[in-house]
Amino acid sequence: MLKNEEVVGLLGNAPALHDWNTDDPLFLSPEGDWWSLPLSIPPESFPIEYKYAVYHKKDRKLVRFEDGPNRHLPGDARPNKVSILHDGFVHLSNTGWKGAGVSVPVFSLRSKRSMGVGEFPDLKGLIDWAVKCGLRLVQILPVQDTTASHTWMDSYPYAAISAFALHPIYLNLEQCAGKKYAQLVKPLHKKQKELNALPELDYEQVMRIKLLAIKELYEIQKEEFEKDPNFQEYFDQHRKWLVPYAAFCYLRDKHGTPDFTRWKNHSRYDEEAILRFAAPGTRHYASIALHYFTQYHLHLQLREAVDYAHEQGVILKGDIPIGIYRYSCDAWVEPGLYHMEMQAGAPPDNFAIKGQNWGFPTYNWEEMRHDGYGWWKRRFAHMSNYFDGFRIDHILGFFRIWSIPMDVVEGILGHFVPAIPVYRVEFDQRNIWFDHDRYTRPFINEAVLWEIFGHDSDFVKEHFLLSVGNGFYVLQESYDNQRKVEGWFNGQPQSSFSEKIRNGLYDLVSNVILLEAEGSRGQEFHFRISMEQTTSFRYLEWHTQQQLKDLYVNYFFYRQDELWQREAMGKLPALKRATNMLVFGEDLGMVPRSVPEVMRQLGIFSLEVQRMPKNTAQEFSHPAEAPYLSVVTPSTHDMSTIRGWWEEDRGKTQQFFNQELQQWGEAPVFCEPWINKAIVLQHLHSPAQWAIFQLQDIMGMSGDIRRENPHDERINVPANPHYYWRYRMHLNLEELLKEKEFNAEVRQEVESSGR
Known about the structure:
Number of helices: 28
Shape: globular
Helix content: 25-40%
Largest sheet: 8 strands, parallel
Oligomer: single chain
Number of strands: 26
Strand order of the largest sheet: 23-15-10-9-8-26-25-24
Strand content: 5-15%
Structural class: alpha/beta
């Protein structure tokens, strides 16, 4: 934003700030990523008003003051006191530059060179295609190692066993072997063709083949590998996380579980003991060093793709999950940084009506604060080795996290932490009838049972409930929480009947109005989210319902605002200053009122999704209304694509067709190419700095190129905690690059939009 000979200047209403004399400014000097200036200001000068400005240094001419009101510094200075004032950003409007990008998981890429899954070298093919289409950004999902169970359950990319290690599945075996050892991977060519012919990723088969091949490549190369000075340099730079990670992987496989609490030895991490355990010369050293070998080659292949992207003028955007896997190396090494007794998740939304339970432990922010959020800063620094920007998954977690007790399965029984509770005395102050058991225990009567179970009510009463008279029931102690219910049904034959009964019992357990705060002795409570949808609430008399609704609205939408803003401002500024990468926030869902202003102040991009408007009074947001510091997109990996969404709800589709696309008449049943293109164009012409599209949504503009069944394009279904992440693009990248007419059309639309 600064042209040649332009610098940042400072003026203010004190002699030390040159009394607003624009002919005699103070010049700041660049130091690292920031502009700074040492000043001596006497106490009598305070309070001070000041502003930054842009100056032409050679001509000593004011170009412009920054936007907005004067900055204010209160009168709290003392003699001989050194204060560091960090203002973050000069407020200069810059709404001219805009770019477009493509989003796709690495595992979803398909090329002739890969082995049944997208690999890091495939990013170069995607970058070539992006350049042909005028796209300047490639966004991917997390690429950290998620290997916990060695099953398809590890396909979930947000459950990393290390915040630093890369996933072995993305290693290209031929490139790892090189010409010298190419014969070792040649026998895999037949299997490679079979896996590449599959419409989706076969996670278990691909991992089994790759891990065996990587081990064989290591065994034949290990002596020369360990002497490689480049590896030694890499090892020295990354040993802090690499040694514990390698030891963790070895112990995981030795004990057959990542649950370190069940290991016979080293269940508690001891740095000195692990350094001795992983030292060269031990009988198992080769099994540990195998992971050094794997991580080093993954690093080389990803760095090569990054360097190639930069040569082509394309930036890479990564993804940082909000949580860590419960049985991860991070939790093993520093368990005090996490609340292992809780689970993180998200409250209900249109995509997961019972909320989400990710199973991750929540962060112990107090403990993290003691060393200035060192773990987060190391994480950001590591990401900067590969990425120019990153998406913070669920940035709302920095304001407050949806915390779920361990005896709960579904996210709906969580509550926000931190949160100001509802106090027992408030019910008396508001003249609200209060009955502890009626509000905090599951409400179960004959009508409720019939509504949930229908003709199976008698079966449920016989096996899971106890009668307390007058047509009311309580759950037997063996089934009085969701985790107990889950455990019992896990030991039974699976059927549609058992699934119905299990889910119905979950609903009974969650049929409450208040959640009692632990240790409060009945004096503090949190409202159960979606209270009005419970039968417990519906069976209250009307006046009590209205009183509870008022208190519910106060609890969720008013009383927490200042607390949550303080929480975010206590963490995010320090973390933002720790990196020079662009920071993108995923601010979807139940968004506190303070979030937009905090993100604006910190220069963090918001995410604007057309079918998830921030304004609850709207059915859809319009890309034309998006702020400049934002990303607009018609869909994310957690949603159906444009074409898939078009077929989900006929009423919404019709409304969108008439109101958002401004088309007359009845909407087409299927999303025809021109409709898909019209939606993409709306986003391209948005004032937002970035318009980023899933690869499927770009290909959806062409009837010749797009996949036949739009429902095969979906990457994830958030409502299913055990979803198999296996989507792969149906065309090879080599084929997509040859679609000259289509690629030229995409480029023309991107360029004509000013991106």
